[in-house]
């Protein structure tokens, strides 16, 4: 692990201007993550979490501050070096319904101009990594919601990203499938070594997966609290019953209850 943080979100802020007026979504957010670290971000609806992810990913220009990934500025340098090695996955899986599973997973590689043989070989590897062997030729409509989220995750991993940005990827899943996906995500993160920023509305999911849990305030948001999660890895579902786990969940819940009115 290098001394330089992998991800630095530095004094970032965003005000949206439109004909209807201006909306200050994010007042100021600072976050830093070491390589391979897993950061969970919690915050009330509308506080700017998706906007934050889009600013980290080079999709939405901040009105203040900057982001750097592996020492490269996202907003102050040209050439897109910083964002070349990051990937997104969202709440809805956003698969192309008329593509097979392997073609969906291989799409980022096709966009990069990789030859067909190479990208299909990689898609098959990724199918195995996310537990979808045998479904390579299936269509998205033949898969369950949880399986589609796995495809979405596999597609995000296709480019071997250093940084993975996840915007409530499991929000639409039932509790049992979600536990399963959390275990899978933990295993995949270990296998890939990627740095991950996960946005979630679930306090227990944030604690279960995170090395750190960042709690944002209501809009215009700032970092309200940061909790280190020192539970051993790999985390297990049974760990959620331990007093350490529950204490953390309670502490975070009381942070959220302590928002200014
Ligand atoms: N393109 C835009 N133009 C104007 N306002 C926007 C735009 N995108 C987001 N906003 C506003 O910025 C604020 C933050 O939105 P954002 O989607 O980032 O919130 P969020 O924390 O992801 O919410 P949720 O938890 O519901 O997904 C909201 O008030 C929203 O209306
Ligand atoms: Mg959002």
What does this 3D model show about the protein?
With 261 residues, the protein is an alpha/beta fold. The chain has two domains: 7-85 and 163-257, 3-Layer(aba) Sandwich (Rossmann fold); 95-160. The chain is built from seven helices and ten strands. The protein has helices at 49-56, 101-111, 116-129, 145-157, 175-192, 203-209, 243-257; strands spanning 7-18, 21-33, 38-42, 64-69, 72-73, 86-89, 163-167, 195-199, 212-216, 221-228. A ten-stranded mixed sheet has the order 5-4-1-2-10-9-3-8-7-6, with helices on both faces. Strand 9 and strand 10 (221-228) form a beta hairpin. It is globular, with a radius of gyration of 18 Å. Residues 49-50, 167 line the site of magnesium ion.
Topology:
Blueprint: E1 7-18, E2 21-33, E3 38-42, H1 49-56, E4 64-69, E5 72-73, E6 86-89, H2 101-111, H3 116-129, H4 145-157, E7 163-167, H5 175-192, E8 195-199, H6 203-209, E9 212-216, E10 221-228, H7 243-257
Parallel strand pairs: 2-10, 3-8, 3-9, 6-7, 7-8
Antiparallel strand pairs: 1-2, 1-4, 4-5, 9-10
Helix pairs in contact: 2-3, 2-4, 3-4, 6-7
Bound molecules: adenosine-5'-triphosphate and magnesium ion.
- How far the N terminus sits from the C terminus, by CA atoms, comes to 41 Å
The percent range for strand residues is 15-25%
Helix content: 25-40%
Structural class, please? alpha/beta
Question: How is the largest sheet built, in terms of strand order?
Answer: 5-4-1-2-10-9-3-8-7-6
Hetero compounds: adenosine-5'-triphosphate, magnesium ion
């Amino acid at each position: 692990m290098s001394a330089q943080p992998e991800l630095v979100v530095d004094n970032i802020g965003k005000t949206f201007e439109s004909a209807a007026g201006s909306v200050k979504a994010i007042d100021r957010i600072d976050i830093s993550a070491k390589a391979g670290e897993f950061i969970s971000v919690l915050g009330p609806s509308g506080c700017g979490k998706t906007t934050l992810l889009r600013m980290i990913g080079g999709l939405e220009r901040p009105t203040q501050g900057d982001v750097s990934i592996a020492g490269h500025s996202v907003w102050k340098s040209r050439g897109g070096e910083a964002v070349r090695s990051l990937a997104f996955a969202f709440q809805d899986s956003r698969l192309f319904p008329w593509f097979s599973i392997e073609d969906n997973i291989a799409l980022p590689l096709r966009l990069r101009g990789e030859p067909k043989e190479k990208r299909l070989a990689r898609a098959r590897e990724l199918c195995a990594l996310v537990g979808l062997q045998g479904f390579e030729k299936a269509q998205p409509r033949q898969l369950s919601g949880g399986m589609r989220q796995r495809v979405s995750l596999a597609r995000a991993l296709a480019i071997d990203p250093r940084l993975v940005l996840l915007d409530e990827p499991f929000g639409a899943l039932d509790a049992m499938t979600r536990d399963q996906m959390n275990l899978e995500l933990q295993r995949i993160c270990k296998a890939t070594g990627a740095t991950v920023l996960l946005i979630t509305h679930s306090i227990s999911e944030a604690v279960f997966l995170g090395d750190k849990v960042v709690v944002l305030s209501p809009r215009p948001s700032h970092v309200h609290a940061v909790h280190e999660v020192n539970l051993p890895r790999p985390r297990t579902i049974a760990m959620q019953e331990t007093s350490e786990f529950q204490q953390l969940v309670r502490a975070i819940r009381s942070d959220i209850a302590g928002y200014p009115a």
